[in-house]
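Chapter summary example.
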Amino acid sequence: MGKEYTMKVFRSTGSDSRAEALRRPFLYGCRLLLACFLLLAGCRPEMPSGVISPSRMEALLYDYHVAQAMAEESYDSIEELRYVYVQAVFRKHGITEADFDSSMVWYSAHADYLSGIYRRLSARYEAESKAYGTGTSESELYANLSSQGDTANIWTDRVFYVLKPNRIENKIAFSMKADSTFRRGDSFLWRFTPRFVCKEGSRTGFAAMLVRYADGKVTAAHRRIEGDWNVKMELKADAKRDIRELYGFVYFPSTDVKVYRMMVVSDVSLIRFHSKRETPVEKDMLTVIGDTLTTDTLQRKTAEEALSEGDTANARRLTPTELRRTQDGERTIEVVKERPYTIPKNTRRQQRQTRR
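The structure predicted for these 356 residues follows.
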């Protein structure tokens, strides 16, 4: 009995140890996931007390960019109007210009916060444009494009950037090697929305897009960016050359003005359009295909028959001989006889002298 009892205890202990061994990886995985979650939550930087909150900053930037656009609509005194309108925005939100500048310095260093704000701002601007009947159907058309098909969004990089006037953060650049989806004669549309945040200095940027071909030739398009307006750059490739590379850039230059300046670029997309392939045109609808049609079954009228039936379109093709045939055989012609012309005597005498 003792041996039997001992064996039972041994078997029970072995089963428990196997279950414990199976539970250990599961518990370890749960602890690892929890640690990763806490680590990621802790990585989000804590906002300092003096920085404007995201909700207030969103409302502030909304009015700020509207004020900038209102100033740019004027043809005169743009800088003066910009200063007046922006100061009115600061007074409305109960902040100073120094508060705004220091907060934007922090937000520009933490692009995840700023990206969320501008994403919501874009949605608000678009919704209000639709409400006033000025919404662009083009944005809706390209919103849900995939990377495949005759019309595709081939942009694979980020859709939000913050550019600053220094050598490291002053440009966006991309380069795409052509693959089997690129065709001769493709068209490209590079779309993005720039927003300038600066109280002084140039509110200007530059953009360019280029196609390099297999033979080394280049087709390029460039543009000067001024103000908070949607940018659309179009470029069509040569239909007789193979594309090797597509690349482009946005550049935010520095100035001598020692104030805070920033250029936000959002809603970036790059649309590729395949050109329609040429199809052979049927030159003659009566072309014989195989042995199914050996004669022209269309009954054609002669030009004389067409004229007699009043078909003036075919009558224009009559020759003079055919035209005479269609006319009556008898015609009355009135002939007027005149006295023969005589040469004056003086003229005859001059002619004789000239001959001698």
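To summarize the output: Confidence is low (pLDDT under 50) at residues 1-13, 36-42, 279-299.
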